[in-house]
Design brief:
Length: about 650
């Protein structure tokens, strides 16, 4: 089974017992090793149901399932638990969250839902309706606290007593509100699971007995709660294999702690250092940069691939010149190597650096099939997700309130979609009353629809709207008990959502796109029913949709487009030709991040960017750049001086005279 693997890979696959640390360098075939290790366990009589595999993205989990299935078959693969940390925690909570005072049909709130709640709470705390202070700092502190499993009393001081007290109260009240709404956010999926496993020994023992073999991918990205959950479950059998690369730890701002992989108590450490992606020159550059970090496991990437050429480096007078030069060089490489635009990636440290590149792409003429065209097609990786589009959020909000009538955030989103005469003034009266009397908003609407609380003096038009929304939700509760896709079609027709799109959207093309997205949502729920058969339920579909946003995808991405993305977004991807732009000292290392995450994480970020390139790598900088509207001179990134000169070929920024 391991004949096609190098010795280190084969050793990682065959070593199934004990605590194993696999240090998998960039492009070293990590995913293939993990999937074959799972298959090896199953082929050696390990019940698939006793194997737990945890990843950080749905895409990675899906890819692993597909590969395992090809080796051991679909039936055995279905018995595996192979999913993201968040999906795994959701499964545990759906069965056991009642032990923590929630009901099992809880809703999942995303970042925007949480932010809206914080705005409402801030209005209440400060007794203000307008001119609220910025919540970004408090929001960041609360997110960090959740990732590190800190209580409100343990929040780190900011230097401002007012901000400390305000954030503490906001954090405490947010938790109270979420419990009242019977809702959890993504961070709470982890914290509540950790709390449950620590509080309830029977539940912990059940999962310890169930999972005898545990594998964790991208271990360098774990935060303290994920680390704690994994260690709790692995504690009985101690057959845990963690795979990752400390040199690619670039998410400390999200709560990840590189010390988990640096300090992992391993019975055996295996290093995967042979790279199957990049040329030796590119790897030598990456090795030369990363070896300057002190906090790392020592490893050196190597490759027996054929070397193509040196790494190209150029500097342009201004950022505009740099952008134009990059696009000209893209066209040159495209013609010379007979490549597609999708073979190219332009990577940058900060999103703001894409603006000049985008302007140059829009303005550049190029030849296609002997015709001159102005504007090169491009795509910004990690743009607006399908599930974040307003029409999809509307539909999902309806489904959320139907499944969980305490989901006030969902109700507030759709109470007047389509318009049904419930004005902001009426809504203010309702929300003020329900907060004062501690009544769930939907319960208040039901009571008003049944002629209670007449002292609120709701006018006839909004009263009609309230009765209409209550009737829709109550009817939908019965409908959605069976055949979810037909029920969703019924709901869309019942609320006349197509007409609402037509009335709210003036652009005809946009109307068509929005309606196609709504139809795609119906397709998604239909696909979910086919996959889950008799187990299909609205609550489960909503949870799945909240966690598997990338499964609802726009299917029109077939055009050949050039890729634009940040260094962070590029992790896990690879391209024949990569351009790394804006390599200047205030940009990389980034001034603000240097203070927050330190020089070593910034260096790891460049290492990740360099190792995206398969054959050709171009590095660029500008000698001057506008900062806050003023042109200032720029210095080359200090990291550039860590790349040996003999690996670089300095070229002119001028491509076509």
């Amino acid at each position: 089974m391991t004949n096609s693997f190098n010795p280190s890979q084969a050793k990682a696959i065959n070593q199934t017992n004990g605590r194993l640390l696999v240090l998998a360098g960039a492009g070293s075939g990590k995913t293939r090793v993990i999937t074959y290790r799972i298959a090896h366990l199953i082929k050696n009589s390990t019940p698939p149901s006793s194997i737990l595999g945890l990843t950080f993205t749905n895409k990675a989990a899906s890819e692993m399932k597909k590969r395992v299935s090809a080796i051991v078959g679909v039936k055995k693969t279905k018995e595996l638990t192979l999913c993201t940390f968040h999906s795994f925690c959701l499964r545990i909570l759906r069965k056991n969250i009642d032990k923590l005072g929630y009901t099992r049909n809880f809703s999942i709130y995303d970042e925007k839902d949480i932010y809206r709640i914080l705005v409402h709470l801030t209005k209440d705390i400060l007794k203000m309706e307008k001119d609220l202070p910025s919540l970004s700092e408090a929001f960041s502190i609360i997110t960090m606290a959740k990732n590190k499993n800190l209580t409100a009393d343990a929040l780190p001081p900011t230097g401002s007593k007012w901000l400390d007290n305000f954030t503490k109260e906001l954090y405490e009240r947010l938790n109270t509100v979420l419990r009242a709404y019977n809702a959890v956010d993504f961070d709470s999926l982890l914290t509540l699971t950790s709390e449950l496993l620590q509080k309830d020994k029977d539940i912990l023992q059940h999962y310890q007995d169930k999972y005898k073999y545990i594998m964790i991918d991208e271990y360098q990205d774990t935060n303290p709660i994920q680390y704690n959950i994994a260690e709790l479950i692995a504690n009985k059998h101690n057959n845990i294999c963690v795979v990752g690369d400390d040199d690619q730890a670039i998410y400390s701002w999200r709560g990840a702690e590189v010390k988990h992989i640096l300090e992992f108590k391993a019975d055996l450490i295996i290093k995967l250092e042979q790279n199957y992606r990049s040329t030796p020159t590119i790897l030598k550059a990456a090795n030369s940069v990363i070896k300057n970090n002190n906090l790392r496991h020592d490893k050196v990437l190597w490759s027996d691939l054929k070397d193509e050429e040196k790494i190209e480096l150029f500097h342009a007078p201004t950022e505009t010149d740099e952008a134009k030069s990059v696009i000209s060089k893209v066209l040159l490489y495209k013609e010379k190597l007979n490549l597609k635009f999708s073979d190219f990636a332009i990577l940058y440290r900060s999103n703001s650096l894409s603006r000049n590149i985008e302007l140059a792409l829009i303005d550049t003429p190029w030849q296609k099939e002997n015709k001159w065209i102005r504007g090169i097609p491009y795509e910004i990786y990690g743009g607006l997700e399908f599930s974040q589009r307003s029409e999809i959020k509307d539909i999902l909000a309806y489904l959320r309130i139907i499944a969980n009538e305490k989901d006030t955030e969902a109700l507030l989103r759709i109470i007047n979609i389509p318009r049904r005469g419930i004005s902001d003034k009426t809504l203010d009266v309702l929300t003020t009353f329900q907060r004062k009397h501690k009544i769930a908003l939907y319960q208040l609407l039901k009571d008003i629809a049944n002629n209670k609380y007449q002292e609120l003096s709701i006018q006839s038009r909004p009263l009609k709207g309230i009765r209409e929304i209550v009737d829709i939700i109550e009817s939908a509760k019965l409908k959605f008990k069976s055949n979810l896709s037909n029920s969703l079609k019924w709901l869309i027709e019942k609320i006349n959502y197509k007409q609402a799109i037509d009335e709210e959207t003036k652009n005809e093309k946009l109307k068509t796109i929005k309606w196609e997205n709504v139809q795609e949502c119906v397709n998604t729920i239909s696909q979910y029913e086919e996959e889950t058969k008799d187990k299909a339920s609205l609550v489960d579909f909503i949870s799945t949709t909240q966690l598997l946003k990338e499964n609802i995808s726009n299917k029109t991405k077939t055009q050949d487009k050039l890729n634009l993305m940040t260094f962070h977004s590029s992790k896990g991807l690879e391209f024949p030709v990569c351009f790394l732009i804006g390599l200047e000292d205030h940009i990389l290392p980034h001034e603000k991040s240097l203070l927050q995450t330190g020089i070593e994480e910034e260096r790891r970020l460049l290492y990740v960017a360099i190792t995206r390139a398969k054959k050709h790598l171009v590095l660029s900088m500008s000698r001057s750049r506008k900062r806050f509207g003023k042109t200032s001179p720029s210095s080359p990134s200090r990291f550039l001086f860590e790349i040996p000169k003999d690996l670089l070929q300095v070229t002119s920024w001028k491509v076509f005279n």
